[in-house]
Design brief:
By secondary structure, the chain is of the alpha+beta class. It folds into three domains: about 5-50 and about 95-300, putative glycoside hydrolase family protein from bacillus halodurans (Beta-galactosidase, Chain A, domain 5, Distorted Sandwich), CATH 2.70.98.50; about 300-350 and about 635-790, Sandwich (Immunoglobulin-like), CATH 2.60.40; about 385-630, Glycosyltransferase.
Length: about 800
């Protein structure tokens, strides 16, 4: 069990945030690594409470008209905010845990020489220890080719493997024995209130009637032994005196689609599980492992990162983290964290699965934090920031599919709730593609009543195209973007000043102070609304031009863009969050929504809009001066912001903060509690410090900190369908390679004079663009080498 990229520990996990995660996009597992008793938590990506429902409040258009009158004519923001509660429907449902496998070993004495590890190169969790003179090993993996969790137990002496294996679950379930297998059947609640909402004394509602509501699930566990005895009895598998044993688990749910009721019959689910288990059991362990490795490594090895030698040697990961929290940050630990972020995305999101939720694919509670749902005002989008830059574009396919489905659901929300064309989504969604405002009439409007979630998701879709330049992707996403633009057009309302206004408007989860220190979060024209609308309509116009369609519509979108309420810069030099310079009760608020135009948007850049970039910088400084970045995902977003603003030292300072304040022993991100978006956001942020491509050019090492003077990165992706390798030394670019998948003009910003050569060694003429960047004509399928001149 050796790997250059591994998390490893000298003791079993005692807590959720110490255990090691496995997944294949559909099946998730969390391995604790116990000696006498091993616990493996199980998940399945479609196991959610609830079912399809009509959550849209009828005839919201009249309410909307009155809200706008109160804002635009009466300037009565508190009354308008209170009225927005009439637009709220029910909360989302919750991602559910499936159960636990418990392995109870027959060990006569205590273990020594213990070690457990997660091998990122292999997507395997290993446990090794010695009892007496016998060394025991366990290897666990979740196979995508065989859709099964596989656990291999071995010893270096014969007839030493003896254990019992049982299944347990928080869910209503039964365990039976069939043909020496354990057969599991169960169901999850038909309704779960969010963990922060106490509507009644029974927040988890289960229907145990044969035809009752609630998703069904099934699973099969089999043990394949080498020597010894294996039997299923008394609701458990019993293995005695085997030389080795392979445990195989597969599960399925009765999910039939986001808009269809889940089925009631577990027989077809068991049949699917049987097929997976039979196929896996027919192969020897070495073949199972080889197929798993081939499938996984094809993704993981697309990219790599070297930031320098380990600072603290080969310490266990928890000790290494502690050393980096108390002293200088280990650069190799940062590279490990980057690899871990890519690993978690591969484990959480694959073609044909559900997207990664707030906790990826892992959940331990029937009422997980924030329902472990899709939070659309930053978190779901952040989950997919590294997909494109870090060469895992196929992992973003579940998000594209979800947005397509959400657009279908969101058409009804746009029409019935607001009387608008197109589609919309709000702050939360779930497996059932909820698109209306949540809150049940009691939710805080500054997070619930925000209709820009769909438009923000379109930014992820556009990047999915921009990085690949695949015409099929553009053909697929353009109708979704165009419908989102139709909603925006109808949502905007003309004011007496001749401007188009977004009203009501919030800056997600933040509030301001009115006279008399009254708290409010609802006004018009938040900076975030403007930024998202600009992004969306700009991308729609670019798409229409590329496809050669909708010329008249593009002209109309241009008029809308020119009519938007402009950004406001306060007397203190800060980019304003709302239409007026309201005082803030939380000047260090975790959200930095008003800086969307810097990142993930690209309207504000130091090169093109230096005045706005300076205002954004001052806003970011002000937030941090008052304690922002105190949650993991917020800290990760700020890394990306400073990288876009070209401030390497401050981007690095946020990387340090992330490790010191927001990272658990298993390197999961701490909101707290665990949220996976910080892992993904920071992975993207580290890549953004090394490579950027949002401003019509490829910037090499735009925010390289002095703490990483020498290093390399391979397999990064840039917009325009370029694959980029980088090497640097003494804080300067040493060489780079660009592979052009599509071709066309390539604009480069390298911060020093460079030479560009073809793979045949021919030096290319470079066009000087006069702003510190150069350009050359790239041909599809060609590789270009860059080096500093002289």
């Amino acid at each position: 069990m050796t790997s250059s990229r591994r998390l490893w520990y000298c003791q079993p996990a005692l807590e959720w945030e110490q255990a090691l995660p496995l997944g294949n996009g559909r099946l998730g597992a969390l391995v604790y690594g116990g000696v006498r008793q091993e616990q493996i938590k199980l998940n399945e990506d479609t196991l959610w409470s609830g079912g399809p429902r009509d959550a849209v409040v009828p005839d919201g258009g009249r309410t909307l008209t009155e809200i706008r009158r109160l804002i635009l004519e009466e300037d009565d923001l508190p009354a308008a905010e209170e009225l927005t509660k009439r637009l709220q429907g029910p909360f989302t449902q919750s991602y559910q845990p499936l159960g636990d496998l418990w392995l109870t070993m027959e060990h006569p004495e205590k273990a020594a020489d213990y070690q457990r590890e997660l091998l990122l190169d292999d997507a395997c969790v290993g446990v090794r220890y010695r009892v007496g003179d016998v060394t025991y090993e366990r290897t666990a993996l979740v196979s995508a080719p065989h859709q099964a969790l596989v656990v291999r137990l071995t010893a270096d002496a014969p007839e030493c493997i003896s254990l019992d294996v049982r299944f347990d679950s928080l869910q209503h379930h039964t365990v039976s024995v069939g043909d020496d297998d354990l057969l599991v059947e169960g169901r999850v609640p038909w309704h779960v209130d969010p963990n922060y909402h106490e509507a009644d004394a029974n927040p988890v509602k289960v229907d145990t009637a044969p035809d009752g509501r609630g998703m069904r699930f099934a699973g099969i566990l089999r043990a394949v032994g080498d020597g010894g005895r294996v039997q299923a009895a008394d609701g458990r598998l019993q293995i005695r005196e085997a030389d080795s044993v392979t445990l195989i688990w597969s599960s399925a749910t009765s999910f039939q689609g986001w808009d269809r009721e889940p089925g009631h019959d577990t027989a077809p689910l068991l049949a699917r599980c049987h097929a997976s288990v039979d196929a896996a059991a027919s192969l020897p362990w070495n073949a199972l492992l080889a197929q798993h490795l081939a499938e996984y490594r094809a993704r993981f090895w697309r990219a790599s990162l070297d930031l320098g030698d380990p600072l603290y040697g080969d310490l266990p990961t928890d000790e290494r983290l502690r050393a980096s929290q108390e002293g200088p940050l280990d650069p190799d630990l940062v590279a490990l964290y980057w690899d871990y972020g890519r690993y978690l995305l591969i484990a959480s999101s694959r073609s044909g699965t559900q997207p990664a939720s707030l906790q990826g694919i892992w959940s331990r509670s029937q009422r997980p934090p924030w329902s472990a749902n899709y939070t659309l005002n930053i978190n779901a989008e952040m989950n997919y920031w590294p997909a494109e830059t870090c060469n895992l574009a196929d992992c973003a396919k579940p998000l594209v599919t979800m947005v397509e489905e959400l657009a279908q659901a969101g058409r009804r929300t746009a029409e019935v709730l607001y009387g608008c064309r197109g589609w919309t989504a709000h702050h939360n969604s779930d497996l059932w593609r909820l698109s209306s405002p949540v809150g049940a009439g009691t939710g805080c409007p500054w997070w619930a009543c925000w209709p820009m979630g769909g438009a923000w998701l379109c930014q992820n879709l556009w990047d999915h195209y921009a990085f690949s330049q695949d015409p099929a992707v553009l053909q697929r996403i353009y109708p979704i973007l165009r419908e989102a633009a139709a909603f925006v057009e109808d949502w905007l309302v003309a004011g007496a000043d001749g401007r188009l206004h977004s009203a009501p408007s919030t800056s997600p989860e933040n509030r301001f102070l009115l006279e008399g220190d009254r708290l409010c979060g609802t006004t018009k024209d938040s900076a975030m609304d403007r930024a998202i609308i600009v992004d969306l309509l700009t991308h729609c116009m670019d798409a229409a031009t590329t496809l050669g369609v909708d010329a008249e519509l593009s002209r109309r979108w241009r008029v809308v863009l020119d009519s938007l309420y402009p950004y406001q810069v306060g007397s203190d030099g800060r980019l304003q969050e709302w239409d007026r310079p309201y005082p803030e009760p939380e000047p260090g608020h975790r959200h930095i929504s008003h800086l969307y135009g810097v990142h993930p948007g690209h309207e504000i850049t130091p090169q093109r809009t230096p005045h706005l970039a300076a205002a954004a910088r001052r806003s970011l400084e002000h937030r941090l001066e008052h304690g922002s970045g105190h949650t993991g995902w917020s800290c990760a977003w700020i890394i990306n912001q400073w990288a876009r603003l070209g401030d390497a030292s401050r981007a690095y300072a946020q990387v340090e903060t992330l490790f010191r304040k927001s990272t658990y022993p298993n390197l999961w991100d701490a909101h707290p509690p665990f949220q996976i978006d910080g892992n993904f956001g920071a992975t993207a942020g580290i890549a953004e410090m090394l490579l950027q491509s949002h401003d019509g050019e490829i910037a090499l090492l735009p925010a390289l900190p002095e703490q990483w003077p020498t290093g390399s990165a391979q397999g990064l992706r840039a917009r325009g369908a370029f694959l980029v390798d980088l090497t640097w030394a003494d804080g300067r670019l040493a060489e780079a390679t660009l592979y052009a998948r599509v071709g066309g003009e390539c604009r480069l910003r390298t911060f020093e004079a460079i030479v560009v050569e073809t793979q045949q060694g021919e030096s290319l003429p470079l066009g000087d663009l006069g702003d510190g960047s150069v350009a050359f004509a790239a041909r599809a399928g060609q590789r270009y080498h860059l080096r500093p001149r002289g």
